[in-house]
């Protein structure tokens, strides 16, 4: 089984075809060498109920979720400088800085 978490556009097109033919998720997963849970998650996230599966639309939605997921950054300059100071001057570990 493939360890990639996200499906590629090349994998989404066969899913679109198989789903339109009524092929089961288990069979699709086996043909793509993916976990059944991946296929189930793919269909529940990117396919609207009662609408046919569209590979390009599913890829677009996946890309949008991915872009949103990586926006959490520390922007407080004082906090950044404090952490850098503790790391350099006191040789603290990241765990010591967060208080664990």
Would you give an account of this structure?
The chain has 100 residues and is mainly alpha-helical. The protein folds into 2 domains: 9-69; 73-100, no CATH class. It has helices spanning 9-20, 25-32, 36-46, 55-69, 77-88, 94-98. Helix 1 (9-20) packs across helix 4 and helix 2 packs across helix 3. The two termini are 37 Å apart.
Topology:
Blueprint: H1 9-20, H2 25-32, H3 36-46, H4 55-69, H5 77-88, H6 94-98
Helix pairs in contact: 1-4, 2-3
Secondary structure: number of strands: 0
The gyration radius over C-alpha positions equals 21 Å
Intertermini distance:
37 Å
Given the structure, what is the number of helices?
6
Key traits:
elongated, mainly alpha, 100 residues, 6 helices, 2 domains
Would you summarize the structure shown here?
The protein has six helices and no strands.
């Amino acid at each position: 089984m493939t360890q990639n978490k996200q499906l590629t556009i090349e994998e989404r097109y066969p899913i679109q075809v198989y789903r339109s033919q009524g092929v089961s998720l288990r069979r699709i997963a086996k043909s793509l060498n993916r976990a059944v849970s991946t296929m189930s998650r793919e269909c529940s996230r990117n396919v609207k109920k009662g609408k046919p599966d569209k590979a390009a639309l599913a890829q677009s939605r996946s890309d949008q979720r991915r872009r949103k997921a990586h926006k959490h950054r520390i922007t407080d300059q004082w906090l950044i400088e404090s952490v850098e100071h503790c790391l350099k001057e006191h040789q603290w570990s990241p765990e010591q800085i967060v208080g664990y």
